[in-house]
Design goal:
Alpha-Beta Plaits, FAD/NAD(P)-binding domain, 20% strand, five-stranded mixed β-barrel, 3 domains, FAD/NAD-bd_sf, alpha+beta, microsome
Length: 509
């Protein structure tokens, strides 16, 4: 049996694990850290997500000295909503990017990349502390055979084994949170697909289904991600051919049908996992979670890798100032600082991803229309949301401001914009709402604000909460009286902003 000791041991050589290995190895220290990077399978991975890096993620890569990992992988300069300044995002084949990150980690001083399957955590005998991992090495093992068993010890263990983490509970203990799934993304690769705007991301709104995303990942390949909500149809391919493909732009239909005939369908869950503070009495010492093993959001906005890389930038700074990685008190303070310092980026991306996804719900058609018309105003109405989406200006307060503005602009659209009504000979007529419709529209306005509250406030609360949520209580025999809370929500969302809106209109006049 192999036995070795390292300063830092990282489980998982994905985006988070590989970039952290390189970041810690390049710290300016008198004695470089000895780092082990363990990965179950080192050949190039083949996934349908992790192919879009927002400009904020590109900036984080540059800060880590890893911007060269975007070169020579046929990456596309894409995501060109009008970002402020000269910022740019990238899209690419996930596997090629990962291989570049692993090569960068392998070349860093003191890093050893090991192909091994981690089977268990090693705990200290007299305290709740992780001191290493047990694994089965693949070095020299024939295909299909198990290699040598090995135990790796380290002052600090980092678990970055992705969304299907096997060790989340081992690390978090009683504070562990179970990830919830909000449907699936089904992925296809279209060959030489003529996008409406080349080298731009495209979102297709499909009736009766979630959004369809298309973006180039190389010169000839375009990724198509189809949102499929629960329950997943039994015959998924037939569902896509009959319900989704006919609603795509005409030039894309042939490419989609060819991809369906050629490739197998692959899907990934769209999961939500709020970040619970680590380093507390409930969690184990000597270990931390990183990346999707700890915090997940909807992949609609392509912000997952950006959050992971921003986390690595922060951890590099905080761990670099730590004299002893084994000191539990110092490490707890570091993890507490990390938890709150990451909030501008993480909370912005997390809230925005599900807030945008919820806008595609059929019940939120008014908010969705208001959002689109809000963007059409141009200026700050599009540059602000674009700065948030690209993570150039990560600010939960700015996000809340634009979300409230969209909610009230949706009401403004409801009262002032013409809408289609049946006309002569089946032709629609566009007429503005009449005065006698105002009472009905006012009721709809209250419903819009109530719906906006249900979308935004729980997401904001999940980011403010640092503790693990308690299991849902059993419903009481008599429902509790909730009118005061409802009134409070209406006052916060309706009365106060309406007064500010009226003041703005008066001052503008």
């Amino acid at each position: 049996m192999w036995t070795t000791h390292y300063d830092v041991l990282i489980v998982g050589a994905g985006v988070a694990g590989s970039s952290l290995a390189h970041a810690l190895a390049t710290l300016p220290r008198e004695k470089p850290l000895r780092i082990a990077l363990l990965e179950r399978s080192l050949p190039e991975p083949d996934r349908i997500v992790g192919e879009l890096l927002q400009p904020g993620g590109v900036s984080a890569l540059q800060e880590l000295g890893l911007e060269a990992c975007l070169e020579n992988i046929d990456a596309i300069n894409t995501v060109h909503v009008p970002y402020p300044g000269a910022a740019e995002g990238r899209s690419f084949h996930h596997g090629r990017f990962i291989m570049n990150l692993r090569d960068a980690a392998r070349r860093a001083p003191g890093v050893e990349v090991i192909e091994a399957t981690v089977t268990d955590m090693v705990r200290a005998h007299f305290e709740d502390r992780i001191i290493g991992v047990q694994a089965i090495r693949k070095d020299g093992a024939a295909s299909g055979e198990d290699g040598d068993k090995a135990t790796f010890f380290a002052d600090l263990v980092v678990v970055a084994d992705g969304c299907f983490s096997n060790f989340r509970t081992s690390v978090m203990g009683s504070a562990v949170v179970k990830a919830s799934t909000r449907g699936h993304f089904v992925g296809l690769v279209l060959e030489d697909a003529p996008l409406p705007l080349q080298e731009h991301g495209t979102v297709v709104l499909v009736k009766g289904s979630g959004p369809v995303l298309l973006y180039q990942i190389s010169k000839h390949d375009t990724r198509m991600l189809i949102d499929v909500r629960h329950p997943v149809p039994a015959d998924l391919k037939s569902h896509i051919l009959t319900k989704i493909v006919p609603q795509l732009p005409l030039p894309l239909r042939c490419a989609a049908e060819a991809a369906l005939a050629k490739d197998r369908l692959r899907r990934m869950p769209n999961s939500f996992l709020p970040a619970v503070q680590q380093g507390t009495a409930a969690s184990s010492a000597g270990v931390l979670l990183l990346g999707d093993a700890w915090n997940m959001r909807h992949p609609l906005t392509g912000g997952g890798m950006t959050v992971a890389l921003a986390d690595v930038v922060l951890l590099r700074s905080l761990l670099g100032a730590l004299p002893d990685l084994k000191d539990r008190d110092h490490m707890s303070r570091v993890l507490r600082k990390w938890h709150w310092r990451r909030k501008p980026v993480a909370a912005t991306v997390n809230i925005l991803s599900f807030a945008l996804y919820d806008l595609f719900d059929p019940d939120l058609a008014v908010l969705r229309t208001g959002c689109i018309k809000y963007f059409e105003r141009g200026g700050a109405c599009v540059s602000g949301p674009a700065s948030l989406l690209s993570v150039i200006v990560p600010s939960p307060l700015l996000l809340a401001r634009h979300f409230v503005a969209v909610a009230f602009y949706s009401i403004w659209v409801l009262f002032t914009h013409s809408r289609a009504t049946p006309g002569l000979h089946g032709k629609p007529r566009y007429v503005a709402p009449s005065f006698d419709e105002y009472p009905h529209l006012l009721r709809r306005s209250v419903k819009i604000l109530h719906t906006a509250s249900r979308v935004f406030l729980p997401l904001a609360y999940s980011e403010l909460r640092w503790w693990a949520p308690a299991p849902p209580p059993k419903p009481p025999s008599e429902p509790p009286f909730e009118m005061p809370l409802t009134l409070t929500v209406y006052i916060v969302w309706f009365v106060v902003p309406l007064a500010l809106w009226m003041l703005f209109l008066i001052s503008a006049a």
